[in-house]
Amino acid sequence: MERYIKQLIDDIHRATHLVRPPHELWAESNADPLDELELEDMSHVEKYLYGKEEPISSITGIESHTLPPIEKLTKEQQELLATELERLLDFFHFELEFPANYPTHLKYSFIKDFWEESHVPMSFGTNHIELCDYERESCPFEGYCTTCDEIEAQMKYDEEVEEKARASGMDIDFNMDDLLPTKEDIERWVKNREEDHSIPPFGKEDEDNVDDNDSIPFLNGFYNDDGTKMDLGSVPIPGLCIICKKYQLDDGDENILCTLNRNDQRDSNDFKCGAFEKI
Predict the structure, then answer these.
(1) Which residue of 68, 199, 227, 243 is surrounded by the most CB atoms within 10 Å?
(2) Is 135 exposed, middle or buried (0-12, 13-18, 19+ CB in 10 A)?
(3) pLDDT digits 0-9 by tens, 137-156
(4) Where are the domains of the chain?
């Protein structure tokens, strides 16, 4: 077994020579993997929109059947292989989430099971693999993990804060929808504005005061068809936008139109844009 493990470790080391070219998406977008925001955006697009799952054995070049059964390994051999395989996974941008104090030799069984799975290969960044479902009854790291205790303690603290707030007479029960204007509120506001002639409609007077580089002012925000106010900060950005020339431009008016288009299709799995211009 010692000779076999030595050969396997040599194969693991050689596997790092199999450098995979980045997904073509990175070249098309000119994204900088050293830029934290661009790395996060593009990695998300690659993983969830354009990437295709492959067996871990295909990604790493190490076949799953070459990993010895745990019962045939000593504690030291398990620790050695776990260390080498973790380094290999790190090379291919995978990180299995273990508790900080989890013994290295115990990681081997999880890593061996992971080798039977399929995932999207990443060009840059880190693909964090959760091994726990945060259910105390099925904890895979019993005796080594305190996450469930920490979550329970935080929930208990939140409940105590809520009880104290209620006892002090503070009204903490509210509906977020109550904070948004209703359709009737909007119609009333529009009617009052039309009747108040001291407030001119947006036109020549306002245009004279707008910089060429400023976006057109929209009073009181934007609203959906049902009258609710749009939260522009929560509108998701599809992968198509990230590789579009207009996404890179600092053009306020163009960005508004793009954002409205994204908002209209935020629940669609097939985002379409007639103004798309590939970088």
Answers:
(1) 243
(2) exposed
(3) 888 898 888 888 888 888 88
(4) 2-131, 177-264
